[in-house]
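Lecture 7, part 2: worked example. A protein chain together with adenosine-5'-triphosphate.
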Amino acid sequence: MTGIQLHSVEKVYPNGFKALHGIDLDIREGEFMVFVGPSGCAKSTLLRMIAGLESVSEGEIIIHNQCVNDTMPKDRGIAMVFQNYALYPHMTVYKNMAFSLIGKESKQEIDRRVREAAEKLEITNLLQRKPGQLSGGQCQRVAVGRAIVRKPKVFLFDEPLSNLDAKLRVSMRVQLIDLHNQLKREGVGATMIYVTHDQVEAMTMGDRICVLNRGEIMQVDKPVNLYHHPANKFVAEFIGSPSMNLHDLPLLRDHGAVSLRLGDNGVLNLTPELTDQVLSYNFNNVCLGIRPEYLRIVAGPADNAVQATIMTVERMGNEELLHCDIGGYRFITRVATRHDWDPLLGEQIWLHFDLHRAHLFDKETGLNLKQHH
Ligand SMILES: Nc1ncnc2c1ncn2[C@@H]1O[C@H](COP(=O)(O)OP(=O)(O)OP(=O)(O)O)[C@@H](O)[C@H]1O
Ligand SMILES: [Mg+2]
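Predicted complex, written out as structure tokens:
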């Protein structure tokens, strides 16, 4: 097997703080893997351990079939791009990019690689400038270029775009995806691990995403699977913007039929599949999860439609996010902007819940009840 494998990897910092609790992960050769999670969940710690900048307390890190626990960073065949890309200010862009190769490759080879990388990143016209004369986005591209010239088998990125403004971040994001695809086409497919706390970045960039929380893996899967099949409440809430609606609701059981009560506004009748999931569930409350797009405005009373009061309206241009009160619970729905209707605060609407797209989570463990089946 090639790629990178993590076996029961743990990290205990010298002050005794345990940052990582037994991480098992198989990153395939040539894959674009994203580590995502809230601040402090140990994304950087894990990346720095793969890079060799932090020691491994327990477990093994395997890169291309070799345990690298005791291998020096420079011998791991990796290149890392950090958030504060730390270019040498007194050197030109050219020199910054060439620096790591000097003494290791011939002058012609260095020149060829620098120009090739500059071309890829469209910074050829900047080669003679110094970092002080560049914009943030240009500096970022130089930092990536500096990694490319080394022709590493593995690229590690630690929030490389977080210093950039929102627009630039989107365009750099696309450039990095392009770069990954381009290297693949050229037959030098590089494995990339990309750390971010931005779930949108994670969703759009990753072949697969590893969601971390408090030093533990919550779920590893393709973006679309994380979105539609979250293994637990944490992933359900973290992935997707606006977040999935999540509420602990009372369960009503009546001769095999099960429904959820939304305060005084009515009940939702569970689908056969969801009913199945709660049959052996022995709490009186269960956490319902439903994404804003699966709440739809309908004209009036209908099966699984309840009355809602509009509390806040976020106008995004193409769509509106309506924050509604339903029987004392807050739900967000997203609706396409209409020219014939401007939602008003306090307005009453009817919302239909598409429970075929809903999830139930154990209120104690947060696990998706679907997993028990
Ligand atoms: N040298 C250290 N000694 C002790 N604890 C540390 C050390 N470095 C990091 N930590 C702790 O380990 C945890 C993980 O830190 P880490 O920097 O890996 O998080 P992160 O997910 O990268 O967060 P962010 O998104 O803010 O960059 C944090 O609780 C942090 O305080
Ligand atoms: Mg970090």
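The two ends are 31 Å apart (CA to CA). The mean pLDDT is 93. Keep this in mind for problem set question 3.
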